[in-house]
Amino acid sequence: MAVREVIRMGHPTLRLKAKEVAREEIQTPEFKALVQDMFDTMAEEEGIGIAAPQINVSKQVAIVGIPHDNPRYPDAPENEEEDPGFDVMVVINPKITITNQEQSGFWEGCLSVPGLRGYVERPIGVKVDYIDIDGKDQTIELSGFGATVMQHELDHLNGILYVDHVKDITKLSYTEEYMEFHDDES
C-alpha cells in the first residue's frame, strides 16, 4: 500500500476525539487499505504503535504491540517473566479500564513528537475491550510496559499526547540528550 505522512504535535487532528468505526466498515477495502497504510507507516518510522489520527485520519483504530527488536526502544523488557508484552494487533473502538492504579514511569517517545522523550507515569495495569481486524469483540489485560504502550496509543484516539502527561517539565528531553544523560533512568 503506502507510507503516509505522520502529522506532528500542533496539527489539530491530533487533538480531536476520533470517530468510532462502524462494524460494517471494518471489512471494506478502504478500511483494510487504511490499516495496511498504518502498518507500512509504522514500519517505515520504526514505531511500536501508531493510531489513525497520527496519519490525519480521525478514526478509532490503532496498531500496537511490543516487538523486542525495535531500535526506538532498545531498553524495552525482553524477558517474558519481567514483562510479557503482547503481539502487534489492530485495536478498533477500544474501551480501556484501569485494573491497577499503581504508577510506573517510563521515558516515552512518539512519532508525532519527533526528536523528544518525556518521562511519564501511568497505571501499571489495564484491560482493553476492542474490536479486532476481523470484526470480532476481544479483551486483553496488560501490565507493566505493555500497559504503558497501550495507554500511549489509545490516548491518541482521545486527542491526548504523551507530553500532556509529563508532570516534571525537566523530564522532557531531546532524544540525543535523553540517550546521553537519562537512558539509565528507565
Itemize the secondary structure elements and their pairings.
Blueprint: H1 29-45, E1 49-51, E2 61-64, E3 89-110, E4 113-131, E5 137-143, H2 144-156, E6 172-174, H3 175-182
Antiparallel strand pairs: 1-2, 2-3, 3-4, 4-5, 4-6
Write up this protein.
This protein is α+β, with helices and mostly antiparallel strands and 186 residues long. Strands 1, 2, 3, 4, 5 and 6 form a six-stranded antiparallel β-sheet that branches. Strand 4 and strand 5 (137-143) form a beta hairpin. The termini are far apart. It has one domain (12-185): Alpha-Beta Complex (Peptide Deformylase), CATH 3.90.45. The mean pLDDT is 91. The chain is globular, with a radius of gyration of 16 Å. The longest helix is centred in the first third of the chain and has 17 residues, at 29-45. It has helices at residues 29-45, 144-156, 175-182, and strands spanning 49-51, 61-64, 89-110, 113-131, 137-143, 172-174.
